[in-house]
Design a protein that fits this description.
Layout lengths: L1 E13 L12 E13 L15 H13 L4 E5 L5 H9 L4 E4 L5 H14 L4 E9 L2 E6 L1
Parallel strand pairs: 1-3, 3-4
Antiparallel strand pairs: 1-2, 2-5, 5-6
Bound molecules: the ligand Nc1nc2c(c(=O)[nH]1)N=C([C@H](O)[C@H](O)COP(=O)(O)OP(=O)(O)OP(=O)(O)O)CN2 and zinc ion.
Zinc ion binds next to strand 2.
Keywords: Lyase, Metal-binding, Queuosine biosynthesis, Zinc
Pathway: Purine metabolism; 7-cyano-7-deazaguanine biosynthesis
GO molecular function: 6-carboxytetrahydropterin synthase activity; metal ion binding
Length: 139
Amino acid sequence: MYGLIAEGHFDAAHFLADYHGKCENLHGHRWRVEVTVESQELGQEGTERSMVADFGRFKRSVAAVCDEFDHRLLVEQGTLKPTTVQALESEGFALEVLPFRTTAENLAHEIFCRLEAKGLPVVQVEVDETPANRAFFRR
Ligand SMILES: Nc1nc2c(c(=O)[nH]1)N=C([C@H](O)[C@H](O)COP(=O)(O)OP(=O)(O)OP(=O)(O)O)CN2
Ligand SMILES: [Zn+2]
């Protein structure tokens, strides 16, 4: 098996509804993202001959997905009143409303799916909320 690993990161704010602790309040993280791709075979021709994927293409794809969350308020759909969402947007704040609770586990899964949709042979996405808090999604 061959593999590559690329790292990305994004800074964002979030809160965990129903948490019953300090994380229910709005706070921020610098999320670190580590993506692993694997393949039994290497490319046969062209730019990606003898590669799992071009490091450049791989890194840019990871960065592009991280950018979709960067400097945004990540909001689980339905956890803020529509009038609050409208008020924040009318102030010019960028929100990313997501159909899941914004845990590191769910973010790892979402990033996995977005990278897979770009055609990368992803096998694992690790998401660190802090150097001590790490989650991953693996398939
Ligand atoms: N399994 C998970 N547990 C928690 C998640 C998560 O995504 N998955 N997220 C949070 C919060 O987002 C929180 O920001 C991080 O939790 P916590 O470790 O409690 O906070 P600190 O890093 O500030 O830790 P201190 O030890 O208080 O400094 C909670 N749980
Ligand atoms: Zn948090």
